[in-house]
Design brief:
This is Unplaced genomic scaffold scaffold_700, whole genome shotgun sequence. It is a single chain. This protein is of the alpha/beta class. It has one domain: Leucine-rich repeat, LRR (right-handed beta-alpha superhelix). The protein has seven helices and seven strands; from the N terminus they run ααβαβαβαββαβαβ. A seven-stranded parallel sheet has the order 1-2-3-4-5-6-7, with helices on one face. Helix 6 runs parallel beside helix 7. The radius of gyration is 18 Å and the shape is globular. The protein starts with a helix and ends in a 5-residue tail after the last strand.
Length: 184
């Protein structure tokens, strides 16, 4: 994997239009990433990416911070990422034009999700844990919600989510609640 990134970087260094031409970039890596620097260099060359998926389950939060610090995409529209929401929140500060957002586990057990209060005026589609979706729905023009990763312990957030959806958004066209059949 890292060798493929290195080959891409070598080509992009000789021909900068290669990096500018990439519109969709997906990295799903189930093995440990030894070095983040090559992937970071790659991301820095992809300034016109509109669709970004980064699924790196073995990457530690501080390494995510190293990977994404200072990375800017001028046309980013879709973000699917599996990093803690503290890192996502910082990244979103520089990408307010996101329309489609898919995030995994929050990482905050007690207290508010770092995405609480985040205003993303173009956000219309969100997939996230139930308690994290609630505040995003209140502050953004969302029309499609997928509330994920919840169990019996999350029944109160589900009720609150549904109640807030009924009162806060006239745009909602799809609501998807994922429940594990083993929870009941």
């Amino acid at each position: 994997m890292e060798r493929n990134i290195q080959v891409f970087l070598e080509h992009a260094q000789h021909n900068p239009t290669i990096g500018r031409a990439v519109k969709s970039f997906h990295i799903i890596l189930r093995v440990r990433l030894e070095k983040v620097a090559p992937l970071r260099d790659c991301l820095l060359r992809l300034c016109n990416v509109a669709d970004l998926q980064l699924i790196l389950p073995s990457l530690k939060p501080f390494r995510w911070g190293q990977l994404l610090h200072g990375v800017r995409f001028h046309q980013l529209d879709l973000l699917s990422i599996n990093v803690l929401h503290t890192v996502v929140a910082e990244f979103l500060e520089y990408h307010p034009g996101i329309a489609f957002l898919s995030v995994d586990a929050c990482g905050v057990i007690r207290g508010p999700c770092p995405l609480d209060g985040r205003k993303l005026p173009a956000l219309c589609d969100v997939s996230a844990p139930t308690r994290c979706v609630m505040r995003l729905v209140l502050n953004n023009p969302i029309s499609r919600v997928a509330a994920l990763q919840f169990s019996k312990a999350d029944l109160a957030p589900i009720r609150t989510l549904v109640a807030s959806l009924l009162t806060s958004t006239a745009n909602l066209t799809v609501l998807q609640l994922e429940v594990s059949p083993t929870d009941y």
